[in-house]
Amino acid sequence: MIGMNKDRICSFCNQPMAGENPMFTGPDVDIRICADCASFAEELLQDEPAAETDDVCSFCGRTQEHDMKLLFGPEVKICNECIAFANKQLYGKNS
Ligand SMILES: [Zn+2]
Ligand SMILES: [Zn+2]
């Protein structure tokens, strides 16, 4: 799983990640969110009211539903469930 990480750039902050920095990757290899953004996103969306739109999460491909919140990056979107999952993966918390 390690290697070929020179081109890993977060889709939200556009920061290239050093080899050790964790990154959560979406179904498309060009879509990923870094630990910093995932942590920030989780805090941000906590205060965000859920809204209904036709937008689709770039990570899980679901359309926005009643209790689903989306964070908009420059070119991609991530939903609250993917953010929660990303944080579990990246920080190893939960359980
Ligand atoms: Zn980032
Ligand atoms: Zn999602």
Write up what this structure looks like.
The chain has 95 residues and is of the alpha+beta class. It has one domain (3-91): Herpes Virus-1 (2-Layer Sandwich), CATH 3.30.40. It has 2 helices and 4 strands, in the order ββαββα. The protein has helices spanning 35-46, 80-91; strands at residues 23-25, 32-34, 70-72, 77-79. The protein starts with 22 loop residues before the first strand and ends with a helix. The protein binds zinc ion (ZN) (2 copies).
Distance N terminus to C terminus? 24 Å
DSSP E strands, number: 4
Q: Please tally the helical runs, counting DSSP H or I stretches of 4 or more residues.
A: 2
Give the CATH topology.
Answer: Herpes Virus-1
CATH class: Alpha Beta
State the helicity in percent bands. Answer: 25-40%
CA gyration radius, whole angstroms = 13 Å
Proportion in β-strands: 5-15%
Average pLDDT works out at 83
The computed structural class is alpha+beta
Summarize the helix and strand pattern as letters: EEHEEH
What is the annotated CATH architecture? 2-Layer Sandwich
The neighbouring-strand order within the major sheet is 1-2
User: What characterizes the major β-sheet?
Assistant: 2 strands, antiparallel
Number of structural domains: 1
Question: What's this entry about, in short?
Answer:
The chain has a single domain, classed as Herpes Virus-1, CATH 3.30.40. It is about 25% helix and about 15% strand.
List the helices and strands and how they pair.
Blueprint: E1 23-25, E2 32-34, H1 35-46, E3 70-72, E4 77-79, H2 80-91
Antiparallel strand pairs: 1-2, 3-4
Residues 57, 59-60, 62, 78-79, 81-82 line the site of one zinc ion.
